[in-house]
Automatic annotation (TrEMBL), chain A:
The record marks R148, R155 as: Required for activity. Keywords: Cell wall biogenesis/degradation, Glycoprotein, Golgi apparatus. It is an enzyme of class 5 (isomerase). Probable UDP-L-arabinose mutase involved in the biosynthesis of cell wall non-cellulosic polysaccharides. It comes from Arabidopsis thaliana x Arabidopsis arenosa. The keyword Glycoprotein applies. This is UDP-arabinopyranose mutase. Glycans are attached at R148. It is found in: Cytoplasm, Cytosol; Golgi apparatus. It catalyses: UDP-beta-L-arabinofuranose = UDP-beta-L-arabinopyranose. The keyword Glycoprotein applies. One of its GO terms (cellular component) is plasmodesma. Belongs to the RGP family. Its main location: cytoplasm. The lineage of its organism: Eukaryota, Viridiplantae, Streptophyta, Embryophyta, Tracheophyta.
TrEMBL record, chain B:
Glycans are attached at R154. Keywords: Cell wall biogenesis/degradation, Glycoprotein, Golgi apparatus, Isomerase. It comes from Arabidopsis arenosa. The lineage of its organism: Eukaryota, Viridiplantae, Streptophyta, Embryophyta, Tracheophyta. This is UDP-arabinopyranose mutase. Probable UDP-L-arabinose mutase involved in the biosynthesis of cell wall non-cellulosic polysaccharides. Pfam families: RGP.
Length: 348, 376
C-alpha cells in the first residue's frame, strides 16, 4: 500500500508541542505531513508563542481552548506530555498518528527517508494476529505470509487498535539505563512489524504511536502523573500507563496491538543523569502495576471501550489506591476522561 | 583447507557442549559449505530410510551415525516411537546425545549472508541466544535486551530484567520460506528476502509454529519435551513433527519458567519440496491443528510436574484424554510419547554417576574412519 492509497481524510496527526519553535520539526516532516490535517496542542505550561511554518493544514489549541471545551479545572489533565490527549479528544478522524516534537524522519538502511505516517496507517488498516505468533512476523506484508503450522482459522486476524513505532538514535530507554550507557544510541533498524500477542504486556511509548480512534479512542487515558513529572520523557510514565490500559482493553475486546516499523529519528534532548537525580518514583509505580494488570480480568459485560475504562478505573482504585495516591488520582482521571469523552463526542 | 575461514573454524564456541543432529535420507554434501562454522563440532547423524545405503560424511567431521538398524537395536521394541521416512526421526539423535546443547539443521540448508555480505555463523548466534536470558514475562519493544547495542526500554519493570534461562533458540530461513502446502501452491515464487535483525522472546502463554530446520535447545532443560512425534511411513500425518514438538516444548517451558527465543540466526533454505506431496502429507494436520492448538493453549500442567520428563508424561495423558476423539491417531501418539520418555530415561538416567556412563553398551559410536567403537 503506497501513500497514494491512504485516505488522508481519515487521519489526524496530533502533535503535542512541548517546544515553542516547531519550525525544524514541521519542516523535516513536511514531505510526509503534507495533505494531512494537523492538530497541534500546546502544553498549557509553555509560555512562549508557538512558531509554526506556513503551508500546513493545521489547527492549534492552547490552554484557552482547553478551558473552553473541558473547563478550567479539567484542563490540568492536559499539561506536559499529556497535552496531546486533548487533540485525541477533539479529533473527528478515524486514525490518529502522534509523534513527539523532538523527532524527525529516520532513514532506512537504503538511505530513504521513512514515511512514518503511511506506515502507521498501513499497520492500522491491516489485521493484527494476537492469538498465535507468526515467526515471519507480519503475514500481510509484501513477501511474507503465515508459516506452516499456523492455524487457518486464525489467519483472518483481528482489527488493529494501535501501531507502536520505534526510534533510532536516542531510543526510549529510562533514565538509569541511559545514564549508565551515556554513549549508547540505537542504530539497529529491525525491518519488521509484528503483533504483540494477546495477554503479553509491554511498555508502550508515546513518542511514535498511532491508533484507531474509532475503535479504542477512549482507552488512551491521560491518567498517571508522576509527582515530579517533567518535560523530558525520562521524567514521565503517562504513556506507559496509558499503554498498559490500552493493551489490556484491546486484549479484552479482541483487538490487536502492533509494534515495530516505522522508525523515527529521535534527537538528543535532556540529560539522563540530571533526570536521575529526581526522586524516581516511576520505578515503584511500575512494579506495583505489573502484578495488577497480570491478574486483572475485566468483566465479560464490559463490551464498550468506555465501560472497560470505567471498570479498569474501579479496579485500580480498589486494588492499587492504597499503595500510592498516584493510582487513586489516575483512577479518578480515567473516570473524568470518559465523562469528557462522552460529552465532547456526543455532540459531534 | 585453502579458502576456508580458519579463524571461524578455530573459534567454535562451546564445541564440547554441543552436538549437531542432522537427519538425512539423501546426502550430507551440504556440510562442505558449513566447514568454517561446524567443522569442530561433533555430529550425530540420523540416517532415515533404507539402512543399507551408505551415506558419505565429508571428511574431517567427527560424527556418529545411526541408521534404522541401529535405532532398532538400541531401542528394541521402543524403537516404534521413532518416525520412519520423516525428519522426525531426528529426535533419536537428541536422545542419544550426552551434551548440554543440541543444534539441529536440515540437509538442504546452507550458509546465508547478512545484509553487509558477511556469512552468518549460525551456531555462534544460537549459543549466544541460549546462553543469555529470555524475557517471557514482559515484551521488550527493542527485542532481545541482552544483545549488544540494545537494552530494556522505559517502563520495563526492573524486577523482570534478570530474565529467565533460555531453553530454545528458533532460527529462521532466507530464500525458501517454511510455508504449508496450500500457501506454497498459491505462492510458488515467493522467497523470503527480508532480513529481520532481531532476536526476541516469545511471551509466556503464547504458542508459535516451531520449525526444525534451524533449531537449537538446551537438552538438559527441555530435551524430553522435544519429541518429534509419529510421522511418515505408516502414519496418517507428516510435516507436523516439529510443530508437535514446538507446541509441547513451549507449554513445558512456560510451565517450568524457561524462555523460548526466535529470530536470528538466518540460514539459506535451498530446496522447495513438492507442494502436492506436501499437501498429501500434511492435509490431515491442516484440520487437526484446529484442535491441537486449542488443546495446547488451554491445558494446565500440575505443580508436581517439575521436570521436562514429568511434564511430558502428564502431557501424554492429556493427549490421550482430550485428542483421541479427534482421531484415534492421537491415542497411538500418546502411547508413543510414553515410550519416548521411557527410552529417554533409560538412555539418560536422571541421577548421574560413574556407572551410568556405561548405560547401554549397545550404543555404538562410529568414528570418522568408519570403525565401530563402544561408547565409553
Amino acid at each position: 500500500m503506497s501513500s497514494a492509497e491512504i485516505n488522508k481524510n481519515e487521519v489526524d496527526i496530533v502533535i503535542g508541542a512541548l517546544n515553542a519553535d516547531l519550525t525544524q520539526f514541521l519542516t523535516s516532516w513536511r514531505p510526509f505531513f503534507s495533505g494531512f490535517h494537523l492538530i497541534v496542542v500546546k502544553d498549557p505550561e509553555l509560555k512562549e508563542e508557538l512558531n509554526i511554518p506556513e503551508g500546513f493544514d493545521v489547527d492549534v489549541y492552547s490552554k484557552t481552548d482547553m478551558e473552553k471545551v473541558v473547563g478550567a479545572s479539567n484542563a490540568t489533565m492536559f499539561s506536559g506530555y499529556s497535552c496531546r490527549y486533548f487533540g485525541y479528544l477533539i479529533s473527528k478522524k478515524k486514525y490518529i498518528v502522534s509523534i513527539d516534537d523532538d523527532c524527525v524522519p529516520a532513514k532506512d538502511p537504503k538511505g530513504f527517508l521513512v514515511d512514518a505516517v503511511t506506515q502507521h496507517v498501513i499497520n492500522l488498516e491491516n489485521p493484527a494476529t494476537p492469538l498465535f505468533f507468526n515467526t515471519l512476523y507480519d503475514p500481510y506484508c509484501e513477501g511474507a505470509d503465515f508459516v506452516r503450522g499456523y492455524p487457518f482459522s486464525l489467519r483472518s486476524g483481528v482489527p488493529c487498535a494501535a501501531s507502536c513505532g520505534l526510534w533510532l538514535n536516542l531510543a526510549d530507554l529510562d533514565a538509569p539505563t541511559q545514564a549508565l550507557k551515556t554513549e549508547q544510541r540505537n542504530t539497529s533498524y529491525v525491518d519488521a512489524v509484528m503483533t504483540v500477542p494477546a495477554k503479553a504486556m509491554l511498555p508502550i511509548s508515546g513518542i511514535n504511536i498511532a491508533f484507531n480512534r474509532e475503535l479504542v479512542g477512549p482507552a488512551l487515558v491521560p491518567a498517571l502523573r508522576l509527582a515530579g513529572e517533567g518535560k523530558v520523557r525520562w521524567e514521565t510514565l503517562e504513556d506507559v500507563w496509558c499503554g498498559m490500559c490500552l493493551k489490556h482493553i484491546s486484549d479484552h475486546l479482541g483487538y490487536g496491538v502492533k509494534t515495530g516499523l516505522p522508525y523515527v529519528w529521535r534527537n538528543e534532548r535532556g540529560d539522563a543523569v540530571e533526570s536521575l537525580r529526581k526522586k524516581w518514583e516511576g520505578m515503584k509505580l511500575m512494579e506495583k502495576s505489573v502484578p495488577f494488570f497480570e491478574s486483572l480480568k475485566l468483566p465479560e459485560t464490559a463490551l464498550k471501550v468506555e465501560d472497560c475504562v470505567i471498570e479498569l478505573a474501579k479496579a485500580v482504585k480498589e486494588q492499587l489506591g492504597s499503595d500510592d495516591p498516584a493510582f487513586t488520582q489516575a483512577a479518578d482521571a480515567m473516570v473524568k476522561w470518559i465523562q469528557l469523552w462522552n460529552s465532547v463526542n456526543s455532540s459531534a | 583447507m585453502a579458502g576456508y575461514n580458519l579463524e571461524a573454524i578455530e573459534a567454535a564456541p562451546l564445541k564440547d557442549d554441543v552436538d549437531i543432529v542432522i537427519p538425512t535420507i539423501r546426502s550430507l554434501d551440504f556440510l562442505e559449505q558449513w566447514r568454517p562454522f561446524l567443522q569442530h563440532y561433533h555430529l550425530i547423524i540420523v540416517q532415515d530410510g533404507d539402512p543399507s545405503i551408505k551415506i558419505k560424511v565429508p571428511g574431517g567431521y567427527d560424527y556418529e551415525l545411526y541408521n534404522r538398524n541401529d535405532i532398532n537395536r538400541i531401542l528394541g521394541p521402543r524403537a516404534n516411537c521413532i518416525s520412519y521416512k520423516d525428519g522426525g526421526c531426528r529426535c533419536f539423535g537428541f536422545m542419544v546425545s550426552k551434551k548440554k546443547y543440541i543444534y539441529t539443521i536440515d540437509d538442504d540448508c546452507f550458509v546465508a549472508k547478512d545484509p553487509s555480505g558477511k556469512e552468518i555463523n549460525v551456531i555462534a548466534q544460537h549459543i549466544k541466544n541460549l546462553e543469555t536470558p529470555s524475557t517471557p514475562h514482559y515484551f521488550n519493544t527493542l527485542y532481545d535486551p541482552f544483545r549488544d547495542g540494545t537494552d530494556f526500554v522505559r517502563g520495563y519493570p526492573f524486577s523482570l530484567r534478570e530474565g529467565v534461562q533460555t531453553a530454545i533458540s528458533h532460527g529462521l530461513w532466507l530464500n525458501i520460506p517454511d510455508y504449508d502446502a496450500p500457501t506454497q501452491l498459491v505462492k510458488p515464487r515467493e522467497r523470503n528476502t527480508r532480513y529481520v535483525d532481531a532476536v526476541m522472546t516469545i511471551p509466556k502463554g503464547v504458542l508459535y509454529p516451531m520449525c526444525g530446520m534451524n533449531l537449537a535447545f538446551n537438552r538438559e532443560l527441555v530435551g524430553p519435551a522435544m519429541y518429534f512425534g509419529l510421522m511418515g511411513e505408516g502414519q496418517p500425518i507428516s510435516r507436523y513433527d516439529d510443530m508437535w514438538a514446538g507446541w509441547a516444548a513451549k507449554v513445558v517451558c512456560d510451565h517450568l519458567g524457561f524462555g523460548v527465543k526466535t529470530g536470528l540466526p538466518y540460514l539459506w533454505h535451498s530446496k522447495a519440496s513438492n507442494p502436492f506431496v506436501n499437501l498429501k502429507k500434511e492435509h490431515k494436520g491442516l484440520h487437526w491443528q484446529e484442535d491441537m492448538v486449542p488443546f495446547f493453549q488451554n491445558l494446565r500442567l500440575s505443580k508436581e510436574s517439575d521436570t521436562a520428563a514429568k511434564c511430558y508424561m502428564e502431557l501424554s495423558k492429556m493427549t490421550k484424554e482430550k485428542l483421541t476423539k479427534v482421531d484415534p491417531y492421537f491415542e497411538k501418539l500418546a502411547d508413543a510419547m510414553v515410550t519416548w520418555i521411557e527410552a529417554w530415561e533409560e538412555l539418560n538416567p536422571p541421577v548421574k554417576s560413574e556407572a551410568s556412563e556405561e548405560v547401554n553398551p549397545q550404543v555404538k559410536k562410529r568414528q570418522s574412519d568408519g570403525k565401530d567403537v563402544k561408547a565409553n
